[in-house]
Each structure stands twice: as C-alpha cells, then as structure tokens.
Amino acid sequence: MDIISNINFENLSENSTFRIRKAKLYDAYIMTTRFIILTLAVLAIWITIFGQIVPQKDPNYDENNVPKFDLPDPLTTFSGKKIKNSSEWIEERRPELLTFFSENVYGKVPCKIPIYQWKVVEQSGNALDGKACRKQVDLIFKKDNHTLRFNILMYLPNEAEKVPVFLGYNFYGNHTITNDTNILISDAWTRNDKSLGIDNHRLTEDSRGVRANRWPVEKIIDSGYGLATIFYCEVDPDRDDFSDGIHPFCYIEGQQCPASDEWGSISAWAWGLSRAMDYFEQDKDVDASKVIVFGHSRLGKTALWAGAQDERFSAVISNNSGCGGAALSKRRFGETIARINAAFPHWFCKNFRKYNDNEVALPVDQHELIALIAPRPVYVASAEKDLWADPRGEFLTAYFATPVYELFGKDGIPTQEMPPVNQPIHNTVAYHIRTGEHDVTDFDWEQYIKWADKQLLKK
Ligand code: GCU
Fold it and tell me: Is 266 in the pocket of ligand 1 (CB under 6 A)?
C-alpha cells in the first residue's frame, strides 16, 4: 500500500497504469487472504478455548434447542474407574467430586474460623401464644482485628424436649419472617426492595413481617419441628465486595479478594450454616442429629452446597435453586453459567468462569452435587413458571443422582418422566413441581414437612 501511495500518477504511461492496477489487485488479494487466515485462526482458538462457536444471546426456553451433551457418570472416577459399591463411593469418588466442586465451582474455605462465643440475646418461653419458645442467639467470630456476628432466630415447640429443626437463611432479615414484634432488626447491609419497604440498604420496622408468606412458622411448630433462620447478609453481604463479611478473616497479608479457587459468597453462606450446626450441637433443646437444611433460590444453591460438604445435616431441601444449584448446567436452559457469573460475579469462585459458555468442558454437573448428599435424604422442588431455574434440569439432577443413592439401598427418582404438577415423589430423593412462580409457598412447606416426617421421623 505504501509503495503505491508514493507514486506520481499523472506521469504514468498506460503500461505502468496497468501494472499499478495489477499491483493494487494483488495487494487486495494479499489483504483478503490475510484477513481470512486471521479470522480462521481466531475462530480455531475460540473453539479450542471456549468449546462453542457463538455465545447464547437470549436465554433458551425451548426444549428443542437444548444442546446435545454428555453427562458425566457419577459412578465413574475422573481416571475412568467404575465405582461398584458404597465404600468405593465414600473412599474414592465422593472425595474427588467434593474437591472439584470446592476448587472449581463454589470455592474452598481457606482457613478455620470457629465460634469465638455465643450469646442468647433474647429468649421467651411464651411465643406463638405459648406454643413455642423463641430464642435469638448471636454467634460471634473473632480473628486478628476482625469481628463478625450473626444472629440465629429460633422457634422451638414447647411440648417436646429435643426437637428436629428446619434451618434456612432468609433474604431480608429475621424480622421479615413473622409479625412478632420481639424480633430484633439487623443492622447489616441489605439489598434494597422498595416493594418490601427496604431502602438505602438498611432494614427498619417498615419491613417487619413482609416475608411471613414464605415462613409458616405456626404450621412448622404444630408439626413438631423447630425453625431456625439467619439473615444471610450478616454472614456476607450479597454484593460484589470482598472487603466485608467473613471473607477477610482468611486473607493473608496484602490479600484483598479470594484466590481463584477460594470461596465466593455461596461458599461463605454455606460456611455460616455449618457454624449454626456447631451451635445446635451445644443447644440442649435441639436434636442436632435431625437438622434439615433448607433454602430458596440462591439460598437453595447454598443449602445444597452446605449439605454436600457437611454430613451433620441430616436432610437437604432445595427450593427453586436453578443454575449453580439443582439445575443441570450442560442443558443451558434459562440461566447459564456465563449469565450467572456476569450478574453475580461474587457468588462462585473465579475458576468457575472457565466454564462460561463452555459447559462442554465441565467434567461434572449438578447431579453430582446432589449425589454428594447421599445417602441422606434430599428434596428438589421446582415451580412450573420458574423457567429461568429450568424445572426439567432440576428434575433431571434428582434423577441422575439416583444411582448413587441406590448404592446405599435408598430409593431415588424412578423414571426420566417428570411427575405431573402438584404430585410429589417423596422418596429419599424427593421431587415436586408445583403450579405457580418462583417462590416458597404453603404447598412447598406442606410437602417438606410430610417428607421429613417420613424420612427422618419414620412416621
Ligand atoms: C436471580 C439469579 C438466580 C437466583 C435468584 C434468587 O434470578 O439469576 O440464580 O436463584 O436470583 O436468588 O432469587
């Protein structure tokens, strides 16, 4: 190009004009060839690294557009060995899967942070018209110059001595789960929701009881269970900021955020549930051998990860947990790994980003997370209209985890056919899809109680 632009065109003979035209043509030919080679090279690198040609633009909600994929077999180790019995599962396969999820999906907890002290900050034997005892217990953590406190709100039926307990996080503070005016209001940072009276990232009286619809406290107490709940932002505020919450407790000098294989927020919240479990082991009113960890949506993802790691949880419930929870990632239906990592960069560990629009490269899928809970009972629940969470993908994780439960002689999900709406399967691996939206409803709780009666209390 440069040679041509330096020529004085007015003094040229016809012959030279022809040559110049030829040279221009040749030059264009070279440029086009280079461009094609470069494009092909970039495409080849893209396919090698990312496994797929074009990232998805709009979420897929069409079953016909679910890509073909190979689902990893929970009963074959990464090196190809077939697992034939429960002891091989416990000794070989379970640990390698746990390590994979820990270092590549949720992130590992880099240091030990035991409870420094716990304090009952409020208690009454006369809650719910005398039916229940209410306790508000602070767990306090201290390390170097860090202090963190989170509060467990508990309602325990008065008539029994040591009771089984449902434990789950709430989204907007303990005071939102009932109208009980004795419940303390958290001063932790919160997400805003004007429709719930929550503004300026602070909780006030305005939001008391606003989530009572999701927590049928009386029904739970009348069924003989206790309820324990924690405001998740007290453990780690749900924002992309690793300078707050529990994460800084484990930083080495100069560290400002977790390393690529270290904990994101879901892992931090799961850590908090295990510390609540440490406390229950000390509380004479709780039957610590019957704690059912429960969670909705992002907190359902959290309940699954907590239950997978901490075998003291005797049962696990995932309510509409979706992507990164109970839904199969490789289906790319509704929310995908790339979408969740873009919208919530703090939830998973950084290593998980390797699988953005690259689910083919993922050597595990979420059915293996469910399998990590085996042989303990696990309940996966979906809602018909909650397509973002991929109800069929949630059902299939329960189905594909079943072979691991069968190694222990437990019953899982018998067929790949989804049950009709509102017709639950209450096996050790349980599933229901109910009518309605992404939510926690009375129907959901009625099923959880019935199933817990059957699985844990053998009623
Ligand atoms: C978003 C997110 C989901 C999550 C949900 C929730 O919709 O994409 O992954 O489950 O929030 O926690 O409410």
Answer: no
Could you tell me if 16 and 93 lie in one domain? no
* SS3 call for 163: strand
Ligand 1 closest atom vs CA 321:
10
300 C-beta closer than 6 A to ligand 1: no
Assess if residue 102 is contained within a domain.
Answer: yes
Any ligand 1 atom below 6 A from CB of 323: yes
Kindly state whether residues 325 and 395 are assigned to the same domain. Answer: yes
Instruction: Residue 439: give the domain boundaries.
Output: 86-455
Which stretches of the chain drop beneath a pLDDT of 50? 1-14, 16, 18, 20, 43-53
CA 297 to centroid of ligand 1, rounded, Å:
6
Q: Is the CB of 332 under 6 A from ligand 1?
A: no
pLDDT (tens digit per residue) in 22-51: 555 566 656 666 765 565 555 444 444 444
Tokens of 182: 């004795």
What are the φ/ψ torsions at residue 380 (nearest 5 degrees)?
A: -110, 125
CATH of residue 129? 3.40.50.1820
**Number of domains, the chain:** 2
DSSP assignment of 187-253? -S----BGGGTBBTTB--GGGTTTTGGG--HHHHHHTT-EEEEEEGGGTS-SSS-TTSTTGGGGPPT
Ligand 1 centre distance from Cα of residue 254 (Å): 32
With a threshold of 0.85, does the pTM exceed it? yes
Domain annotation covers residue 60: no
Q: What is the tens place of the pLDDT at every residue in 236-258? A: 999 999 999 999 999 999 999 99
